[in-house]
From TrEMBL:
Domain called Riboflavin kinase: residue spans: 1-131
Keyword RNA-binding: no
Cofactor or coenzyme needed: Zn(2+)
GO terms of molecular function: ATP binding; metal ion binding; riboflavin kinase activity
Species: Vombatus ursinus (Common wombat)
Keywords for the protein's UniProt record, in alphabetical order: ATP-binding, Flavoprotein, FMN, Kinase, Metal-binding, Nucleotide-binding, Transferase, Zinc
Protein name: Riboflavin kinase
Pathway: Cofactor biosynthesis; FMN biosynthesis; FMN from riboflavin (ATP route): step 1/1
Function: Catalyzes the phosphorylation of riboflavin (vitamin B2) to form flavin-mononucleotide (FMN), hence rate-limiting enzyme in the synthesis of FAD. Essential for TNF-induced reactive oxygen species (ROS) production. Through its interaction with both TNFRSF1A and CYBA, physically and functionally couples TNFRSF1A to NADPH oxidase. TNF-activation of RFK may enhance the incorporation of FAD in NADPH oxidase, a critical step for the assembly and activation of NADPH oxidase.
CC terms in the record's Gene Ontology section: mitochondrion
Keyword check for Ribonucleoprotein: no
Length: 155
């Protein structure tokens, strides 16, 4: 994937309200402006990388870019699941991410249980990949320590 790694940041906004409630897998959502600024030839699908909320620690993450076929979305979204337990919501905070790899294309599922199972598999794959040296080094990237105003999207 020619656009990876891809560096991106934006304010966390409320999503569709189903990540935590229906799936038990909370996600942080970017506003439309961030989604619209993604490279137009960045494939929809499931990716992995690193994420940081505000000036906090950098954690592993898995994210979905696309239309969420199971839910038949009419708007493209970027939903980040940070592989870490947060004590409280962080709407309005700045989320900085580095997308380092691709797992699979997005697809439809026959049931919510099949969707949850696939997401759990994606999380495990992300954890494995992010332990590899070529991905691990990006956890320490200076991007996570830049002033928020310096980089909005892109490299």
């Amino acid at each position: 994937m020619k656009h990876l790694p891809y560096f991106c940041r934006g304010k966390v906004v409320r999503g569709f309200g189903r990540g935590s409630k229906q799936l038990g897998i909370p996600t942080a959502n970017f506003p439309e402006q961030v989604v619209d600024n993604l490279p137009c030839d960045l494939s929809t699908g499931i990716y992995y990388g690193w994420a940081c909320v505000g000036n906090g620690d950098v954690h592993k993450m898995v994210l979905s870019i696309g239309w969420n076929p199971y839910y038949k979305n009419t708007k493209k979204s970027v939903e980040t699941h940070i592989i870490h337990t947060f004590e409280e919501d962080f709407y309005g905070e700045i989320l900085s991410i580095v997308i380092t790899g691709y797992i699979r294309p997005e697809k439809n599922f026959s049931s919510i249980d099949a969707l949850i199972s696939a997401i759990q598999d994606d999380i495990e794959e992300a954890k494995r990949q992010l332990d590899l040296p070529e991905h691990l080094k990006l956890k320490e990237d200076n991007f996570f320590h830049m002033p928020e105003s310096q980089v909005m999207n892109g490299h």
